[in-house]
C-alpha cells in the first residue's frame, strides 16, 4: 500500500494553506463551503487553515451568507494590510525603497541619490534607517513585515544570496547573507529584470500570460525570461543577459569586457549619449528628448530612428532564440507612447520566421515600478506561492 511520508504530508498541508490564501486574495471573501468546493479540499481542512489564518490576522470573519438550509455559513475576508513587505531597487544613481501590502499597493515610497555602491555596508545601513522611519511613521510593527527584497542590476544567485557581478554598478561578489544582521527582516535578492518579470506576472499586464520575455530598458538592458510560469535563470543564473549580446561586431567597448553589446546601442543611456553627440547638449533627460522628438527636431528624429533600429535587432534575435508569446518592454522609456508602434514596424519586417500575429509586443503597465514591485514581491512568495518559481 502506498503511504505518504511526513515530508509529503507537510508539502500538501503547506500547499492547501497557500491555495486558500491565493483564492481569497483574488476573491477577497468567501465561505468555507465555497472555498472547499472551488479548491476541491475537505471542509475540515479548510476550517483548520482558515482558523490558523484568522489567528494570524491575515483573514477575518465578515458576517454570514444566506443559508441554503441549516446554519448560515460564515464569510471570511482577506486582509491586504495584515502583512507588509519592503522592496528596494538599485540603479546607477538612485536607490528606491517602497513599503507594499499583500496587494502590492505601494504604501510608502522614497528615493535617495547615491554616489556609488563601493561601500555596500553603508548603503544597507542607510536602507535600514529608512525602513525603520517608514514603519514608525506608518505605525506598523516590525513583526508584520515579511521581509525585504532587493532588485539588483546584475547576475544574482538567489540561493547563495550572492550578487555575482553588476558591471554597471562596478561591483561584484557581494554577499547579501551578511546584511541579515543589519536589516531586521529576512532578506531576498533577485536580478532586476527577473524581479520586473515577476511583478508583471503577479500584478501587471501579464497576469494571464505564461511565456514572456521582459526587457528592462534603463541605463543598461536586462531581460527576464518566463517559461510556463517559471522564471528561467539557467545553470549559472546568467540566462537572459541579452543586454550583452553582440549587435555590432567589433563595436563599442563594454564594461563587461566584450565589444558591441546591445545595451551600448539600445539602453536609454545610449539614446541620450547619441543625442548629446549630435547636438552637444549635456544632461538631457528622456522627457526633454521626447519633447524634442515631438517638435520633430531633425537631430532627435535621426537619433530615434537609429535607436529603434538597434532595439529592434535585439528583439528580433530574442524572438528567434525563444519564440515567446509576449515581449513586455519596461523601464522609463516604456512610458512614452512614441516607442511601441514604430518599434513593431521595425521588428516585424518581412521575414520567413514570424509575423505580427505570432508574438505580441507591449509596454509594461507597471512602467517604472515593475522591478521595485518585483523586489517587494520576493518576501511574499513564501506566503503565497506553492513552488519556487525558478528553473
Ligand atoms: Zn557587455
UniProtKB/TrEMBL annotation:
The keyword Hydrolase does not apply. It comes from the Bacteria. It holds the Pfam family ROK. Keywords: Carbohydrate metabolism, Xylose metabolism. GO terms for biological process: D-xylose metabolic process. InterPro entries: ArsR-like_HTH, ATPase_NBD, ROK, ROK_cs, WH-like_DNA-bd_sf, WH_DNA-bd_sf. Transcriptional repressor of xylose-utilizing enzymes. This is ROK family protein.
Amino acid at each position: 500500500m502506498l503511504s505518504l511520508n511526513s515530508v509529503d504530508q507537510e508539502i500538501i498541508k503547506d500547499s492547501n494553506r497557500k491555495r486558500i490564501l491565493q483564492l481569497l486574495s483574488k476573491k477577497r471573501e468567501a465561505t468555507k463551503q465555497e472555498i472547499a468546493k472551488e479548491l476541491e479540499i475537505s471542509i475540515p481542512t479548510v476550517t483548520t487553515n482558515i482558523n490558523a489564518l484568522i489567528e494570524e490576522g491575515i483573514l477575518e470573519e465578515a458576517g454570514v451568507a444566506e443559508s441554503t438550509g441549516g446554519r448560515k455559513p460564515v464569510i471570511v475576508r482577506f486582509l491586504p494590510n495584515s502583512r507588509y513587505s519592503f522592496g528596494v531597487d538599485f540603479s546607477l544613481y538612485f536607490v528606491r525603497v517602497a513599503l507594499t501590502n499583500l496587494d502590492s499597493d505601494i504604501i510608502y515610497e522614497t528615493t535617495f541619490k547615491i554616489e556609488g555602491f563601493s561601500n555596500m555596508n553603508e548603503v544597507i545601513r542607510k536602507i535600514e534607517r529608512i525602513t525603520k522611519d517608514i514603519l514608525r511613521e506608518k505605525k506598523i510593527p516590525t513583526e508584520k513585515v515579511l521581509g525585504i527584497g532587493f532588485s539588483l542590476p546584475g547576475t544574482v544567485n538567489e540561493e547563495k544570496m550572492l550578487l555575482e557581478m553588476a558591471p554597471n554598478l562596478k561591483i561584484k561578489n557581494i554577499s547579501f547573507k551578511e546584511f541579515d544582521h543589519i536589516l531586521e527582516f529576512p532578506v531576498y535578492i533577485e536580478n532586476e529584470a527577473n524581479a520586473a518579470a515577476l511583478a508583471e506576472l503577479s500584478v501587471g499586464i501579464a497576469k494571464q500570460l505564461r511565456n514572456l520575455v521582459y526587457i528592462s530598458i534603463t541605463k543598461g538592458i536586462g531581460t527576464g525570461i518566463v517559461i510556463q510560469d517559471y522564471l528561467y535563470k539557467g545553470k549559472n543564473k546568467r540566462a537572459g543577459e541579452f543586454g550583452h549580446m553582440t549587435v555590432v561586431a567589433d563595436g563599442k567597448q563594454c564594461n563587461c569586457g566584450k565589444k558591441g553589446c546591445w545595451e551600448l546601442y539600445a539602453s536609454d543611456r545610449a539614446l541620450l549619449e547619441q543625442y548629446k553627440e549630435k547636438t552637444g547638449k549635456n544632461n538631457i533627460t528622456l522627457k526633454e528628448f521626447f519633447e524634442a522628438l515631438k517638435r520633430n527636431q531633425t537631430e532627435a528624429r535621426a537619433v530615434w530612428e537609429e535607436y529603434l533600429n538597434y532595439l529592434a535587432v535585439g528583439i528580433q534575435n530574442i524572438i528567434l532564440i525563444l519564440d515567446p508569446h509576449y515581449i513586455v518592454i519596461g523601464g522609463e522609456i516604456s512610458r512614452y507612447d512614441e516607442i511601441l508602434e514604430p518599434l513593431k514596424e521595425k521588428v516585424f519586417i518581412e521575414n520567413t520566421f514570424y509575423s505580427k500575429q505570432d508574438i505580441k509586443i507591449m509596454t509594461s503597465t507597471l512602467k517604472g515600478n515593475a522591478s521595485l514591485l518585483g523586489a517587494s514581491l520576493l518576501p511574499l512568495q513564501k506566503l503565497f506561492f506553492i513552488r519556487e518559481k525558478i528553473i
